[in-house]
Amino acid sequence: MEELLRRSEKLTTVGQLAAGVAHEIRNPLTTLRGFLQLQQQNQVLNMKHNDIMMSELDRINLIVSEFLILAKPQAVHFQKKDVRYIVSDVISLLDSQAHLLGIVFNLQVTDEPALVYAEENQLKQVFINLLKNSMEAMSKGGIITIHLFLEGESVKIFIRDQGTGIPAEMLSKLGEPFFTNKETGTGLGLMVSQRIIQSHKGTLDIESTEGEGTTALVQLPIAKPE
Ligand code: ADP
Ligand code: MG
Question: What is the ipTM of this complex?
Answer without folding.
Answer: 0.99
